Amino acid sequence: MSFLDHVLQPPSYGWKDSNGELVKPTRSEILREFFKRLNVFRDRKNWLPFFSWLKVLCLIPFFFIFITSYFTWWTLLATFIYSMIIMGTHGTIWHHRYCTHRAYKFRNPLWRFLTQNLTINVIPEEIYVISHHVHHAKSDQPGDPYNAEAGFLYCFLADVNHQPISKTLSESEYNRVKLLMQHTGVPANSYAQYKVWGSYVNPLYAVISWVLNWSFWYLLFYLIGGHALACSLFGAAGFWAIGVRTFNYEGHAKGKDKQRQGIDYSVNDKSINQLWPGIVAGEWHNNHHLFPKSARSGFKPHQVDLAWYYIKLMHMLGAVTAYRDDKKRFYEQYHNPYLKSVRK
């Protein structure tokens, strides 16, 4: 078995059956797994998925305060921009293109830290990064932690049921996890600490960084627009935190073949390019599956890529020293040959 075959903690219902086919658990099986893995009293190694959802739960009251007490046209506009554009684009910039794919390099840790904390902290890097490597290695196959063919709930609750790292890694295997994470700046547990907590990140670091990040952003938003703006934007972060869990289900066409010629060129998976996620977050997902290490995914003129614009700006300012841009390869290997074929 390769490292990526067992780096994630398998669900109790397994990835595939005896015939090698994808296991499609029932809704009740998925929910039982979800609540079992959130139970920190049963096993403290469940702390990270519990912590991830605790942050979501802490954001939900802000959303209701926004709706009931501060709902105006200007707060609605601010909420829309923050949740749909700023949070989404930051997720692409930080978690997706940098933490997972190392599509660009920072000049120093200060710029990395500033980029990491550009928005309200929601998703733990560890849960996203390791599982996303597996996703690319096994896209739409058994073992893909958010395989759309297994249904909406399978993807929506994947951060708890399928994405945490295995709790039984050997020391050499854990060191490989550290190699995949060390560039993010998130400090690693020692192997002895990993055996206690079942995670790469230490709980103390996770809690302290969460408190400092939220305190900074609430204070800044309050100074700009009072509790109205602060509660509205924290509520927006909660809205995004729930909505982003639907992306891979939609981005892989709900497990169906919806790819279009001349638009979706990565044919070894079910990923598709979608206009809305592309425009608001730079998530031209089929393009990304073609060139996952590219700092740009919006290759065509109409494919707005706000994440790429940020990376390019940081490069112009000297904060980013290098990046990979596969736009030229996209045209040479895929788009131009397609145009020639349809003209014949």
UniProtKB/TrEMBL annotation:
<keyword id="KW-0472">Membrane</keyword>
<feature type="transmembrane region" description="Helical">
    <location>
        <begin position="73"/>
        <end position="94"/>
    </location>
</feature>
<keyword id="KW-0560">Oxidoreductase</keyword>
<keyword id="KW-0276">Fatty acid metabolism</keyword>
<dbReference type="GO" id="GO:0016020">
    <property type="term" value="C:membrane"/>
</dbReference>
<keyword id="KW-0812">Transmembrane</keyword>
<keyword id="KW-0444">Lipid biosynthesis</keyword>
<keyword id="KW-1133">Transmembrane helix</keyword>
<keyword id="KW-0443">Lipid metabolism</keyword>
<feature type="transmembrane region" description="Helical">
    <location>
        <begin position="47"/>
        <end position="67"/>
    </location>
</feature>
<dbReference type="InterPro" id="IPR005804">
    <property type="entry name" value="FA_desaturase_dom"/>
</dbReference>
<feature type="domain" description="Fatty acid desaturase">
    <location>
        <begin position="72"/>
        <end position="315"/>
    </location>
</feature>
<dbReference type="Pfam" id="PF00487">
    <property type="entry name" value="FA_desaturase"/>
</dbReference>
<keyword id="KW-0275">Fatty acid biosynthesis</keyword>
<comment type="similarity">
    <text>Belongs to the fatty acid desaturase type 2 family.</text>
</comment>
<dbReference type="GO" id="GO:0016717">
    <property type="term" value="F:oxidoreductase activity, acting on paired donors, with oxidation of a pair of donors resulting in the reduction of molecular oxygen to two molecules of water"/>
</dbReference>
<dbReference type="InterPro" id="IPR015876">
    <property type="entry name" value="Acyl-CoA_DS"/>
</dbReference>
<feature type="transmembrane region" description="Helical">
    <location>
        <begin position="216"/>
        <end position="242"/>
    </location>
</feature>
<dbReference type="GO" id="GO:0006633">
    <property type="term" value="P:fatty acid biosynthetic process"/>
</dbReference>
<keyword id="KW-0408">Iron</keyword>
<protein>
    <submittedName>
        <fullName>Fatty acid desaturase</fullName>
    </submittedName>
</protein>
